[in-house]
Amino acid sequence: xxxxxxxxxxxxxxxxxxxxxxxxxxxxxxxxxxxxxxxxxxxxxxxxxxxxxxxxx
Length: 57
Description:
The chain is of the alpha+beta class and 57 residues long. The protein is built from two helices and four strands, in the order E-E-H-E-E-H. It has helices spanning 17-28, 47-54; strands spanning 3-4, 13-14, 33-34, 43-44. A two-stranded antiparallel sheet has the order 1-2. A two-stranded antiparallel sheet has the order 3-4. 0% of the residues are buried. InterPro entries: Znf_C2H2_sf, Znf_C2H2_type.
């Protein structure tokens, strides 16, 4: 079963629903993963990107 992005006629297909949800953030700009370091507050759409970012602190 494929999950298809219907956002702005995108049409990208994903085999896993979680991957579609992650992809939709590229359209919405949602960044639910926020750096917890005081004064930073940088946001990320993926948790792995936040973990990579944490290495600079």
